[in-house]
Amino acid sequence: MKVIFNLLIVLGCGYGLVILLIFFLQSHLIYFPHIGREIIATPGQIGLNYESVEINTKDGETLQGWFVLAPDALGTVLFLHGNAGNISHRLEYLSMFHALRLNILIFDYRGYGQSSGTPSEVGTYVDADAAWLYLTDMRGIEPGKVVLFGESLGGAIAARLAAY
Fold it and tell me: What is the pTM of this model?
């Protein structure tokens, strides 16, 4: 009986250690900005008209992005990318939305691509809010003309943005 009790203590301590490791390393398990911080291509290289944009967040970070212009646009997509890579790894999406006559705002979260800062859950929400305000306040786009599109991790961020 004592052997079983000691085994349970060892297993419980091991389990607790694993939980602590996951807690303290969760950002490294979720966010992979290091996979390609370098911009490898631009929308211009696939024939799309675009503007490089800088978006300032309320907590002082600077986000880098692109505003891709579609002729006779029917609306605008706010593109929230996944947890790895940067905006230059999503050109196929830009081409698809452009073919649908939609403008696209795509940006890198803090710590991704050329954006300042370090990735975090709260940071991605602040970044999405800043991108939304960029479209609606700075560009003057009606909120009803903006479509949120989230890829992978960006889906959760888009859902949170839509809820507020």
Answer: 0.86
Cα–Cα distance, 101 to 89 (Å, whole number)? 21
Whole-number Å distance between alpha carbons of 66 and 54: 8
Give domain status of residue 35, yes or no: no
Q: Cβ atoms within 10 A of the Cβ of 36, count?
A: 15
- Contact status, residue 101 vs residue 73, Cβ threshold 8 Å: yes
Tokens of 92: 């196929």
E strand or H helix at 97, and its extent?
A: helix 91-99
In a domain, 135, yes or no: yes
H or E element, residue 144: none
Q: Which ranges of 50-141 does DSSP label H, i.e. alpha helix?
A: 91-99, 121-133
Counted domains in the chain: 1
Host domain of residue 102: 43-163
- Each residue's pLDDT tens digit, 70-84: 999 999 999 999 998
In a domain, 120, yes or no: yes
Q: Distance of alpha carbon 105 from its chain centroid, rounded?
A: 12
CATH of the domain at 113: 3.40.50.1820
Do 42 and 88 meet the contact criterion of CB atoms below 8 Å apart? yes
